[in-house]
Amino acid sequence: VNNPIPSNLKSEAKKAAKILREFTEITSRNGPDKIIPAHVIAKAKGLAILSVIKAGFLVTARGGSGVVLARLPDGKWSAPSAIGIAGLGGGFEVGIEVSDLVIILNYDRAVEAFAKGGNLTLGGNFTVAVGPLGRNLEGNVALRSSAAVFTYCKSRGLFAGVSLEGSCLIERKDTNRKFYCRDVRAYDLLFGEAPRPAQADELYEVLDSFTAKYERDGQRANARRAARERRRAAATDVPPTPTPGPQPPP
């Protein structure tokens, strides 16, 4: 689990690349059924990657930091915008928990809502669901869900899980201004008005690998489908074996 204390955008992008690897690489802790499928990220319209601390006694408070990116019309990822997360909750939860989160924005309207307003409240108008897991999960399984947002969480602490309903993603304007050396809105960053910074190359390499893997998996699936069709066509083209007629008497 990574440091949830807000930092500069270069450090946040580096942290995001590390978190994304931890959610997607098979390790001794992560089996093939415990990773984010490549197609979920390859088809995402945007994503937020954060570290969050949650503490509470009857009332819980949540805060943390990370980055958000959007997919541009040419298929590439936008420049990152620094974000924070904040939220309050109730219930009988006691303890402290630090979590790493990957939040998948499945629809353009979720990206637009954050970009235009500088914040996005999870839940309400945007349904939130736990994202699908598994390396071999078929791509169309996740797409059957109508959830605007998928969430993935890794945590250590006393809480059994994390609920992001009612939490708000917030634009960190000062952090963006210091990194880009000018006043820049999240809208401009997420809609391609700023070039991709070299300081985030490590994050882009991880993200681009999902698109490449998704395309390779699609090519293999198409090849298998074509092979099945050829075998089926070949089977129907085989002429029937003639039935032998009656044999003449010796």
TrEMBL record:
Q: Pro residues bias: where?
A: 239-250
Q: Which Pfam families match?
A: Ysc84 (PF04366)
GO cellular component terms given for this protein: ruffle membrane
An example Gene Ontology biological process = regulation of ruffle assembly
MF terms from GO for this chain are: phosphatidylinositol binding
Q: Where is the composition biased (Basic residues)?
A: 222-233
Q: What is this protein called?
A: Sh3 domain YSC-like 1
Q: Which classification does the entry list for the species?
A: Eukaryota, Metazoa, Chordata, Craniata, Vertebrata
